[in-house]
Each structure stands twice: as structure tokens, then as C-alpha cells.
Amino acid sequence: MTTIDMNATLAELVTANPALAAHLDRAGLDYCCGGQRRLVDAVTTAGLDVGEVLRALADVGAAPETEDWSSMGPAALVEHLESTHHTYLHDALPRVCALADKVVAVHGARHPELADVARFVTELRADLEPHLLKEERVLFPMIRELCNATTAPRFHCGSLANPIRVMGVEHDTAGDLLARLRRTTGDYVVPADGCASYHALYAALVELEADTHLHVHKENNVLFPAVLAAEAAIDAVPS
User: Fold this and answer.
1) Contact 73, 147 (CB under 8 A)
2) Structural domains in the chain (count)
């Protein structure tokens, strides 16, 4: 059992132990877009019992050894994001969309909420795929340039705070769509008459939600603050 600081932010908790992410997701506590809230405040606002949440989180073991993304510099972290989360989404989004259409065709008459599920999945893909390309082709190359520079680079967007702000808005949109999917599916509970494809769809959506939440957390709460700090430091260097 580990000690959980109720005054730590949700983002700090997940950065220290990514294994907590799934448990926060199940409790409905947003650690990515809402990661700057203290745990105690988020739990109280959600109407949960603080003691129960603290005990549950304290029982979570450390995440298996993987890449230590929390200590990566910005250039290494964008490589990690592309090779893990971007690669995953490029594969998962079309696959989940096709699966949602299949399940609607079979079960839509008996479960009309599936039409909304398919619509939200399509909207999520329409939001995330251009978002990934903007990061891969615009923002991430600028971050790499900044990290390799000895004097402040001149970007067409001015400060990197500008594209980062746009990415943050798009993250909020994706987070809202994921929340709608969870509500519409009743926390991804498959009805008694659900077929294997129905089960596969909901399992894929749970995986998609978890991966995207962690992905956004790494960008919002680790990468973007580090980039803005690096930009401020290089701007302060006399030319």
C-alpha cells in the first residue's frame, strides 16, 4: 500500500504512477484535461467518499516498468508520443468506427442509443485524426527545432503558446466526446443480448478512452509546460 496525498493534483498522481490512471477513469475523475485539480477537490465535487477513494488508490501497485516518459525532455517525449499514442490511434480509430457501424446495423433497432455511440465515435475520429497530423507536421517539428536551437527560432505562429492553446481546445473536445460515449453506453455495460461484436466494440472503446486520456495527460501536463518553459528560457538568452 502506498501513501496518496489528497492535496496532490490528479496530473501529479498519474505522472508519478500511471497505474492510477485506470482507477481515476473508473471513478470519473478527469486527470488529463482537468488534471490541475487537487484530488480532494475533484473527489468532493464528484460526490465521492474521500476516504474510500484514498484507500482504493493506495492499494494500486506501481505500473510495470516501461519508458520513463515523465522524465523525458520535450524532444524525446514527442518521439514517444508519436511511436506509442499516435501509432495506436492511427490504427484504432478506423477499426473502432467500422466496428461501431457493424454493431448498429445488427443491434440498432433494439438499442437505439447505438446510433449515438456510432455518431460520437465518428466525431471523435474527425476531431483526432486532423489533430494528430497537426502535431506531427507542425507542432512537433517546431518543438524539435526549439530543443536544438541556441537562439530563439522564428516561428510563423509566433510563440509556441499559440498552437499549444489550439491543441488544448481540441483535447477538450475529444475529452467531451469520450465522456458522452461513457454516459451513452452506461459505463460500457453490454446488454444481455449483445453479441461478440458488441462486446468487442465496448472493450475497444474502453481501451481507446484509457489510451487517449493518458495521451492527453502527457501532452497537457508534461510536454506543453516543458515546451513553454524551454521557450521562455531561450527567449531570455541575450542575442
Assistant:
1) yes
2) 2
Structural domain for 19, as ranges:
10-58
Measuring CA to CA, which residue among 68, 224, 55 is closest to residue 146?
A: 224
C-alpha cell at 142: 517546431
User: Roughly how many angstroms between the first and final C-alpha of the chain, as a whole number?
Assistant: 52
- Residues 151, 222 within the same domain: yes
Dihedral angle at the C-alpha atoms of 165, 76, 149, 217, nearest 10 degrees?
20
Question: Do 136 and 33 fall within a single domain?
Answer: no
The pTM (predicted TM-score) of the whole model is 0.85
Distance CA 190, CA 132 (A): 30
Decide: 185 and 209 in contact? Cβ < 8 Å: no
What are 174-185's pLDDT values in tens digits?
Answer: 999 999 999 999
- Classify residue 6 by its DSSP letter: T
Whether residues 89 and 25 fall in one domain: no
Q: Taking every pair of C-alpha atoms in the chain, what is the biggest distance, in angstroms?
A: 69
